[in-house]
Amino acid sequence: MSLISTSRVKSPWLIHFDCGSCNGCDIEVLACLTPVYDIERFGIINVGNPKHADILVVTGTVNHRNKKALKNIYDQMPEPKVVVAIGACGTSGGVFREAYNVVGGVDQVIPVDAYVSGCAPKPEAIIDGVVIALGKLAEKGKKVDQGIFERLEKTQEAIKAR
Amino acid sequence: MAKTVLPFGPQHPVLPEPLHLTLTIEDEIVKEAIPKLGYVHRGLEKLAEIRDHNQMIYIVERVCGICSCLHALCYCQGIESLMGLEVPSRAKYLRTIWSEMHRIHSHLLWLGLFADAFGFESLFMQFWRIRERVMDLQEETAGNRVILSVNQVGGVRRDISAESAQWILDTLKTVEKETLQLKSTILDDYTVKLRTVGKGVLTKEKAYELGAAGPTLRASGIAQDMRQTGYAAYSELDFAPVVETDGDCYARTTVRFNEIFQAIDLIRQAFSKLPEGELAVKPKGLPTGEVVSRVEQPRGECLYYIRGAGKKFLERVRIRTPTFANIPPLLDMLPGCDLADVPVLILTIDPCISCTER
Ligand code: SF4
To answer: Could B40 and A31 be called an inter-chain contact, meaning their C-beta atoms sit closer than 8 Å?
Structure first.
């Protein structure tokens, strides 16, 4: 089990979902992957499938159309998982919060673990946010792992009792 | 074989933005494509009712983070003509310089994403590495990497000092050299050509009929560039639209690739002619009347319709962006193509969904 909990934090996979962002934050998230910032040195890989991902990076405000898509992607991710909300839009709705189609920040729809402020935040800030989220991922992972051992013991006892 | 209906998006690895296409395919050949939009719609135009015309600058900048400076420029030009302001010529030149910086970074970004769309990841990294230099220029001159916020009604908010100018010109030399080094990889490579040459052909007639804009239009052989209308300082600079005639993905790549060098050249010309003087005039009065303002964004023509009634709040702001114009041509290209080419074809119009849906 310790192998899994180590690799979960040392090699987390990340999925990026754009939810009504202006692109400013998206290109900064992508810039994190490129040689100058190189988020891969933390073992982070950008994947396209939510079922493979540990970290959900959300940019932009949630609106009435994409809130279902966002919830869907979040639900598809396996536990443990963490969410990072990027930019003023992701945290609160930013300049768009009074627009008629905007629900608000990402936390209106799914629980958020780390907020990155700025419009648009610099890639350094985004990396910082992801690293903070990694700490939470480790904690959540421990709980999940403990649960697994307890359940495993219970099953074994049940088998023995039979 | 029977028809299969395949949903493409809204969350797709090749698309940085949510776009949904319902593809009807038969034997891996696309028969029909129906777009579904609205995932990024925020309702920005309506915000004009609760934000006054100065605050609106910051809203329109956030229509799109890739060409933020040009949205603000287009909007400010509209308000200036409603108020009858004459912008100082130094401000006009500075606006040109920032616009062209945006064009360079946007085209490098696109070339990278395009390379990634057909699976050439190292080329993606190379283009984005060069792009970081341009981002540094923007951060140095405007204080922010993507949302520049340099335009204001009546002029610009920041100046570029002579030292910065020298540094910018030096950096651009490096950018030019490094981009040229990649030319043989993106334009002459055998495998890249297999994915681009002859794919998604848009004929000249079709491009005109469907109202394509920007590089998509120019790659089909129509020399139309809004910069020719001579807004900002373009009337005093020497340039000609970059045109290709084949109308396929390769031609569109070539147009964008060559426009990087055109933009570098325009920045050099602008610095060599940069006049001294004021940065902005003080706006007087309130916007009255209606106006249509146009600029050439990296993706094509952007149009703002603004109506004011002599109040602080505008009556109507209507934004028509280049990707909106380029979606009908895309739907014309898709039927008949291979399913594997769909991501390449979508990227070839350089879609900016947040612009389109606002
Ligand atoms: S926080 Fe700013 S840059 Fe990011 S999506 Fe919102 S408006 Fe765009």
So the answer is: no
